[in-house]
Structures are given as C-alpha cells and as structure tokens.
Amino acid sequence: MQRGTPIAVSITRWVGLLGASLWAGVHLVLAAHVVFPGNLTATEIYSIFFGFTSALAIITAVIFLLGLKNLYLPSLIFYIIDFALLTETRTAPALFIGKVLPVNIYVELSWALDIILIIVSAVLWKIDKS
C-alpha cells in the first residue's frame, strides 16, 4: 500500500484482495474436480475455464494489493460477467452441457463473492484517487 492512502481505501483494497483470493481458491477446486459423466469435451472446457478465471482472479487480487487504479474497471467488468454467467447457467441450459446446472455450495459462495467483489471494485473505481 502507498503512503498517504486513506484508511478506508486501504481497507477496501484488502477486502478486495482477500475476496479475490478466496474466489480464486474456490474456482481452483472446481477446475480440479469438475466432471460431467459421459461428456469429456464439456469436462475439459469447464475445467480450463475455471482454471483460467482463477488466474484472472489472482491478477485482480494483485491489482487490489498494488492499488492499480486504471485496472479497477476491468476487475469490475470481470466480476459482473462472472456473476451473469453463473446466474445464466442456473436459469438456462449451460453451453456444451445442454441442461440447467444445479445450485450448490460453490455456486452460493461464488454468488456472494461476486457481489462483494462487484461492490468493492465499483467503490474503488469511484473513490480511489490517491
């Protein structure tokens, strides 16, 4: 963190750092364990997707840690897109699978983290002028 940064901004950055790290951890678990019986293509695609988004979440954690203000908006967009995709696959047939996916503890945790990280990204994008 930079010297002279307001305490509210620093705390918000740390909340973002911890939230993004937890989000990445959840999705790394999914990348390692996602299985769609009888559909190897979907299994591979979703596993790669979860791994890729985990890497992006780790990058957003670093963005929050370093206070890279010009990258708060892309972080906000990333979490909005993830929230939309997560919601879409629970309300309409998922791509490559052809059916609505169930809601489970990982989905609920991801929804909560997405909402928190959308708020954190938006707040930092608006208030972090230091």
Topology:
Elements: H1 7-33, H2 40-66, H3 72-91, H4 105-127
Helix pairs in contact: 1-2, 1-4, 3-4
Keywords: Membrane, Transmembrane, Transmembrane helix
Transmembrane segments: 47-68, 75-97, 109-127
Structural commentary:
The chain has 130 residues and is mainly α. It has helices at 7-33, 40-66, 72-91, 105-127. It is elongated, with a radius of gyration of 16 Å. The N and C termini lie close together (11 Å). The chain crosses the membrane at residues 47-68, 75-97, 109-127. Keywords: Membrane, Transmembrane, Transmembrane helix.
Radius of gyration: 16 Å
**Helix fraction bin:** over 70%
Our estimate of the beta-strand percent is under 5%
Low-confidence parts: none
Q: Helix/strand-derived class? A: mainly alpha
Cα shape: elongated
- Can you tell me the number of structural domains? 1
The total of helices stands at 4
Order of helices and strands: HHHH
Mean pLDDT: 93
Main sheet specs: none
Number of strands: 0
How many angstroms separate the termini? 11 Å
How would you summarize this macromolecular structure in one to three sentences?
This protein is mostly helical. The chain contains four helices and no strands. It has one domain (7-127).
Structural features:
130 residues; mainly alpha; 75% helix; elongated; transmembrane helix; transmembrane; membrane
